[in-house]
Amino acid sequence: MxxxxxxxxxxxxxxxxxxxxxxxxxLEMGADLLEFRIDALEEPDADKVRDIIETIDHPLIAxxxxxxxxxxxxxxxxxxxxxxLEAAKASDFVDVELKTxxxxxxxxxxxxxxxxVSFHDFKKTPPLKELLDVVKAEKEIGDxxxxxxxxxDIKDTLVVLEVLSRVQNTIGISMxxxxxxxxxxxxIFGSPITFASFNxxxxxxxxxxxSTKHILSKIGSW
Length: 222
Description:
The protein is an alpha/beta fold. Helix content is 42%, strand content 19%. The longest helix is centred in the middle third of the chain and has 14 residues, at 128-141.
């Protein structure tokens, strides 16, 4: 049985106060880790983001998701990177997309304590070799690899598990209803983090934290 995975709850709120309230609630419900979705904030700025992270004072992933990969940040790429760089000074993990320009991506990775390099495809599941190449590229530049893809059939969900069976220190997610079970099974294949919600999904197919904790407890001595 693999080492106990961390259950991460995304905090996806528009205002400073709601972020703090949701973070408190998620931690009360047993979240091991939080993902602060900076791109959900109305008019985010670097100082506000750092203040929120320091106020929460709990391990979290700072994420300022680009629009091309399911994010909602509507400022310039320069602004997005600047905010994420400031967040890196206060957070335990920083998620940066593989598709981020290399110069900007390198700055963020260098500034982070632990970097998660991510890839998202909301339309399909790439072939096995392509996904393995994505993970290889991510692991060459960051600490943890992550990919989240959309299945068209059950075979696509098995591709995700096949990737996880071949690599280490990688978060792999098959999204949507078809892929829900991978969020529970992935830790058995070594995924260090699995994502769950407590009030709303931030990604298709996310299970709530109570169900996630219950099922994981039944699978192993977690």
